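Summary for the steering committee. The consortium agreed at its last meeting that each partner would contribute one worked example illustrating the joint modelling workflow. Our contribution is presented below. We chose a case with several input lines so that the handling of multiple components could be demonstrated. No manual editing was applied between input and output; the record is shown as generated.
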Amino acid sequence: MLESLKSELEKALDRAVALGASYADIRFQRYDYELIEVENKALKSYSSRRLSGVGVRVVIEGGVGFASTSDLSQRGIGNALDNAVRAAKALGDRGRALKVGEVNESEVTLRVKTDPFDVSPEEKVSLALDANKAAWTGDEIKSVVTRLGLSKDYRLFISSEGGEVAVETPLVGLWHQTVARVNGVMEMVGDAESLCSGFEFLKSKDWNAFTADISRLAIEAAGSRTPPPGTYPAVVDPEVVGLMLHEAFGHASEGDYVYTGESVLSNRLGDQLASDLVTIIDEGVVEGGYFFPFDDEGVRKGRTVIVEKGVLKGYIHDRNSAHQFGVESTGNGRAQDFENIPVVRQTNYYMEPGDHGFEELVEDIDFGIYLRGRGSRGGQVSIGMGTFTFGVGPSKMIRKGELAETVRGVVISGLILETLKTIDAVGKDLKITTSVFGGCGKKNQMVRVGDGGPHIRVRRMTVGGR
Amino acid sequence: MEMEVAELAVKRALELGATEAEAYVQRAKIIRVGGSEEIEDFNTVESLGIGLRVVLGRRIANYSTSILDEAEVEGAVTKAVKIARVSPEDPDWRHLNRRFGESQAQGYYDDSLEALDYQEVVEALELSLSLVRDYDQRVKPTRIFLTVGVTGVSIANSYGEGCERRETYVVASMRAKAKGGGLESTGSEYQQARSWREIDFEELAAKASSRAVKFLKARPIPGGRMPVIIRNRIFASILGVLLSGPINADWVQKGASPLSNRLGTQIASEDVHIIDDGVMEGGWGTRPFDDEGHPTQRTSVVEGGILQSFLYDNYTALKEGVESTGNAQRRGYWTTPQPSPSNLILRPGGVSFEEMVAETREGIYVEETIGEWLSNPVSGNLNATVTHGYLVKEGELTEPVKGVVISGNFYNLLKEGIELVGDDLEGSMNYYSPTVKIRQLTIAGK
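What follows is the complete predicted structure of the assembly.
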């Protein structure tokens, strides 16, 4: 089926050129997704989704038009092409010019032992049910939800320049959330672990221990207080480092925001923006991260150094922002699916490890806080001002160089360019994670990303709370 | 054509042994136009998909696919029946929705959006961009976005009576940035409507630009506790984040809602009235029937501060032995129906915004925030970072304020915190509120 479709798509590319396109590309995608949800010891839903279609992009006299359709018939593809041409013509010469150049021909499939869609529904349901039951650890537990997520994303890119790249990425994981109540206080803690892998990852882990531990944390958090608001020295765990870097710095390093001047990082190349202990990388293929060897514009996604020893070295680009800056695309042109155009997106964004052990980070703090990501509620930033606000998970106060009581409802906020300068120690560990249950949103598109880093120490972090 | 596919799927499911079946076919035509200083993208999407719910006794399975040819639908039904067979029984399952029909909902469809002229769209956005550029030398547009959606839904289930509806949506947003005297600031604004002519591109440009310029000199202020006036749209968003979960019957039945066991009790002060109005003219969540085919309605959620009702879909209603409130929602054809607010409205009071400011000796007016969705609906902890606010002194809006965090407990706020309820209802997606004045909130500042 794929071969005949491919020849249909190639014909459409030829027709685009005949209609006056100076460049055209077509992306075909076939996406399979299953989500199994177990709630309070019973299967709540088993949903299975298949999505496929094509997106057509054409450049006509500078105008870029795009159209997509889930109708893969010859007529459907023809309609999409016509719509794209109409859109390009309506734009006139306003479009976003593209840096063309790198032409790749490649086919990459992440090898798996067991295709998650070959596993029987029974086996998947029983795994999720068992993990859910294990989370009922006591009377404090009020509600527990467990989800099993499995996906397989096949993407084919072909262009009028002769590019042809096909990538297939599997991603599976388990998400769990417990609501606990202690002395009238309710608290909710959720966490997930995912990996670009076949079903073998789901079979290899003790999920019962995983969910029981989340319940333990929810009970502990419900019985704890919020921290007194103030500014503290903080040890930050890899998850919060990843979240902070991705949201508050990563987005600001995206070429489109930099070009428009919206980003605090505009015109800052070569400046010392962080402590010299800080090196920040965006990389397509890393352990624990989302597997992304090529982007949705057929460009290889390698390793991009954003910050080296505190100095801003570069931005991330798609073909459009690369054109605007007169550089090569860094392979960061990504689309949620075939229905969307690629825009500049991060892949796996992380801080490189340093040389401190965890105890060394904590022992110099007389009174501070250990910020933990597990159970975090995400965050929001203003890339123009560099401000960030994150609700992190249940954390611990640090007293006299040691971890002390648990605190809940911890909200951190600050200015990223100030926070990065006050990093005075970087741990030697490194943890990068991705998720099959969510991702990063920008311009109404969600893509899978990875982020992380080592444990770090920050001299000043503003902590809100009640 | 969609209804035929839906009916075929239901018929085949029954033939394969299903005791009940429901098919939900969604067609969407979406135009997205966006850019930064100029318009850069013009994208169109045409999508079609089917979501199936297949029931064998009390075993339920869901399956969806974007491929609608006969062979794929056949395959989808077969797989759904297979999944249902291995699913454990849900003891709370009764049956699929059996009550069909249309409410008096108005203003959810604008046929002029079916064949929108691409050129006209580009011109409207061009005008808006040029108005930002011309507003002031210090300001320029940095992001513009327009989404136009035309959707069609066809629902068939084994109890008969197919339902079909068409709906339209338009959202336009603008962000502007100002630079001057070594300072920088941004200003954003958006408009939402169910028809094309309701969008005012000139007003969009004027609001984003003026806000950006005014906030060049914005600063954080020292923290403390003080009265806070919250703009209608911001409070609407807070209402959505903090209340839509707790009044969802599904949360209540699971024990995850802090409002479980509070029905009939005072959860807010006497002048707080909250309704879920599925028939509000032109509302963002207005439609004649919900995503199970049940007619929409008006439901009083809080009346005079007393909790009156939760919001139900068919499943949660039957589980409790009550009537569905017509709040079943699918976020897409591939998701399962869940109870969700249609238009959740905090009923306006009689105080104008000007009066509210005039009678405030000292406080802040919150115009734009980020991060309010980090607030915790279970504990009621409310947190939001104010990106655009004003210090109120002696009854007047004075200097602009940014970068302070407001926090408090939402349930305490509903009970004793709301001092004044404004008369200016405004929506943030399907959440609606007038401007409100809160007696006191904690401000974490400089």
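The two ends of chain A are 59 Å apart (CA to CA). Chain A touches chain B through 82 residues (CB under 8 Å).
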